[in-house]
Amino acid sequence: MYKKSSSRQLLKSSVHPSVTCSQSYGQKLPKILQASSFINMFMSIPLVACVGIFATLGQALPSPAAVVEVKPIVILDAQGNVESFANATALGVDIYGPMPDDAKFVDGHWEGEPGTKAHAWFRAQIDIDWDSVPEKEKEKRQGSSQMEVTMFTGDNCSGGFISWGIIDYGESYLTWDNMFSLGIGRRGIRGNEHLDLSTFAGDDICGRFVIRAVGGPGCANTPRYNCLRFWSE
Where are the transmembrane segments (predicted)? Predict the structure, then answer.
């Protein structure tokens, strides 16, 4: 079950018990949230999420001059159709309908493998431009002002995925395995919000800023990252 730990708890990863989320100043943070193992046919991705104000300190904050942004693109097939929509339709998946039954919910996040209906559905979600969706399709879904982020192990939002259905300000979401793309669903990133990606600096999994993600439909290919943090000014 996905739980937020109190400021005095310390939950260590069962896979990497010696690694904790540290502040940029080298101090160890007093709390870690165990988030589970992501299992697909090739690998297992144990996750932790550092929560709260300490997590805000835990990820390296770039200087304004150092910020590089990556923008998503919607991939089209040879016929000019949105590729993820066509792939989902071929599997009998209604991208505006409910999540397929083969999606796995583990400790607060969704995960799945390539070739499953769940993978096709989640992949399509990040390509939907909800501002242009017909009202009858919107009615299939209860609206939400909260944003979701889906992380992928491969380029072009391929490979195994981890989807955080709701992400909150001041929380960092971590994976020990390398991620190379991501997409944002439900809504875009607003003017005062930022989604920063980072990776290891020594034993600090969030210690080195990599790139900042920009909202909008589509998939963003990124340099390797292991940590994301959503925050507002």
Answer: 38-61
Q: How far apart are CA 138 and CA 228, in angstroms?
A: 29
Number of domains comprising the chain: 1
Of 148, 154, 77, give the one whose Cα is nearest residue 113: 154
Whether residue 156 is contained in a domain is answered as: yes
CB 45 within 8 A of CB 37: yes
**Tokens for 226?**
């292991």
CB of 205 within 8 A of CB of 227? yes
**Residue 16 predicted with pLDDT over 70:** no
- For the chain, give the percent of residues with pLDDT over 70: 70
Do 150 and 112 touch, CB atoms closer than 8 A? no
116 within domain boundaries? yes
pTM value is: 0.72
**Structure confidence at residue 147 as a pLDDT band (50, 70, 90):** confident
C-alpha angle 59/9/13, rounded to 5°? 65
Task: Count the alpha carbons within 13 Å of 63 in the hemisphere toward its beta carbon.
Answer: 2
* Structural domain contains residue 24: no
Eight-class DSSP state of 98: P
Measured CA distances, 162 to 14, 76, 98, 175, 196 (Å): 19, 23, 18, 9, 17
Q: Which helix (H) or strand (E) holds 208?
A: strand 204-213
